[in-house]
Amino acid sequence: MKKILLFILGLSFFLNFWFLKPEEAYALAWTQKKDHINVTTTYYYQEGSDYYDNNSNLKSSPNKFVKNSINTYVEYGITDKVTAILDVPYDIVKDGGQTSKGIGDIKLGIIKNLKTDSSSSLSFYGFGIIPTGYSIDTSNAGIGRGYDRLGAEFGLAYGKSFSKGYVESAVGYRFYTGFPSDQIRAYTQGEYDINKNIGLYGMIDAQLGVYNGRSIYSYNNNLIPQGYRLVQAYLGIVLKTDFANFNFGYNKTLWGQNTGDLKGFYFGFNRNF
Predict the structure, then answer these.
(1) Which CATH number is 2-270's, of 3.40.50.720, 2.40.160.40, 2.60.40.790, 1.10.10.10?
(2) Residues 6 or more apart from 111 whose CB is under 8 A from it?
(3) Segment 73-126, tens digit of pLDDT
(4) pLDDT in tens, 137-182
(5) What does the DSSP 8-state code read for residue 244?
(6) Residue ranges of the domains in the chain?
(7) pTM (2 decimals)?
(8) Close Cβ partners of 173 (under 8 Å, ≥ 6 residues apart)
């Protein structure tokens, strides 16, 4: 675990000096201008037949897990320094013979800029988690699309822009009521512009449970551990037009505890109004 955390911090340091540009980015370090709206809609596909146990050993699962998601993320500039954020996912989850589909957990919150200049920005972010997905411990609910628990996350995000792209890093703490445990959340993402129309995108995302929750039983009477930990990566291409930015790429779990070993792809668009 220590080596993984050091790797994430080291990568964040490297990216902050060598990657590049924030405009129209799906990022928490920058706020929208007053009355400006930014919309990002992305389709994600993930699947996996293996999982990481409590000791991070990779094991085979008797069932194949498949998740399709359409995620809509909206930012609205209340002022030049305060932006409202809304994140709404629509999920279709399949595990063995069970299927669940509908709106997942909604996130609603704000980004508050603390300090900014022509090439960098530091912001505070916070959002509440509204449980709209099925509960995974209710017998008639089917597969969970969320934890059915109220939650909240608070953190800091720092971004730096250059002539050919941007880099951004964020770290936060996510609270849940009861199950699952709270989590430390961190990511570093960056984009490098090959030319004015094509960019390369990369992100490393860490979700690290602190294991202060409680274990529960699922709808099919399987014991679900109180928390999980994972590190995952995204690599993609951004196509830029006057109308919108289009993005597509690949994602993969790199390491985990009590979580699936998933891989998949994504594509979507980003547009300012």
Answers:
(1) 2.40.160.40
(2) 28, 30, 31, 75, 82, 83, 85, 123, 124, 125, 157
(3) 999 999 999 999 999 999 998 887 788 888 888 999 999 999 999 999 999 999
(4) 444 445 566 666 789 999 999 999 999 999 999 999 999 887 778 9
(5) -
(6) 2-270
(7) 0.85
(8) 153, 154, 155, 182, 183, 184, 185
